[in-house]
Please model this.
Amino acid sequence: MSVNYGSKRIVTGAHYGLRDWLSQRVTAGLMALFTIVVLAQVVFSRGPIGYEKWAGIFASQWMKVLTFSVIVALLWHVWVGMRDVFMDYIKPVGLRLVLQIFTIVWLTGCAGWAIQVLWRL
Model:
């Protein structure tokens, strides 16, 4: 009698697994590197740290692009985490859908706000 467990196995849940785990680690790593870059600029700057110093740190185009990339990574990180929490703990499908839509709208608004702040649109 031959039993084949691998080909007919039914997996429940969101079916994301390794991809979500990896995206969480990659986005967390990017955010950690960004934090180190900003801290290095603050620590190695001279003079008092005020508005002018912070504006100077984020004035260059490469820093704006890096900051926006980190914001996108943060938004993706939040989306994956919240989606997984909703999938695991919110059983009514309608409520889960409403919460996921609210989260998408909220994160889209945060991305728009980040663009306005970085590029003064």
Notes: The first helix runs from residue 18 to 43.
